[in-house]
Each structure stands twice: as C-alpha cells, then as structure tokens.
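Note to self: keep these together.
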Amino acid sequence: MKPLPRHGDPRCPAVRNLLQTIGSKWSVIVVLHLSQGPRRFSDLRRSVGGVTQKSLTACLRELERNGLVERVVTPSIPPRVDYGLTELGQTLLEPLLGLTTWAVANECAVAEAQARFANADEDAAA
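Structure:
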C-alpha cells in the first residue's frame, strides 16, 4: 500500500474536498443510481427517495463540477435534462460498491457497537 501524503502535501486540500464531495449525504446513492444508466432529474429524485429538490440539485452540480456526472440537455418543449456518469464517474463505482458491500456485511456489528456506546454513555451519566 502506498503511503498517504503528509498533511503539508499540496495535494491534501484537493483530496479532502473530493472526499467531502464523494462522502456527502446523497452522493453515493446518486452515483449508484446513475450506474444503471442516465436518468432524468424527476426519475432520479423518485428513485433516491427522501431527497429534496434543492439537495439533489446541489449534489448533482457538485458531482458535475468534479467531472463525475454529466448533464445533457435535449432541446424540446419542455427541455429534457438527463444526468449520467462520466468515464471518471464510472471509475468510482468499484470502490463505492466495495464500501456498500462492507456496510451491508457489517451493519449488525456497527449497530451493536452503537448500542454499547449508547449504554456506556447512559451509565456514565447516571
């Protein structure tokens, strides 16, 4: 495994910003939904569920700004707008699927750790 860059490395802010984008509340879900092919905004919003129009718009813009998602406008009345993964966005799928697999495999262990933590916190407060 390659060593991580040191804190003073000039690449750190860019990496940190990109990880914040990828790790945002909706980004992983949006990227995974777009892995099935381009989607219209309203279809994407329905399939993601629970996301506001404002949050989804901000998420898609940030993913587009980072070159992971492309926005394609087809001139019609009303205009048709589709969102899809770019080639760069496609390269994100393998690590995200690995993370998703890990989360599913370990959800019980994490829930148990959360319960232990909550109990310890309650015991300390008593």
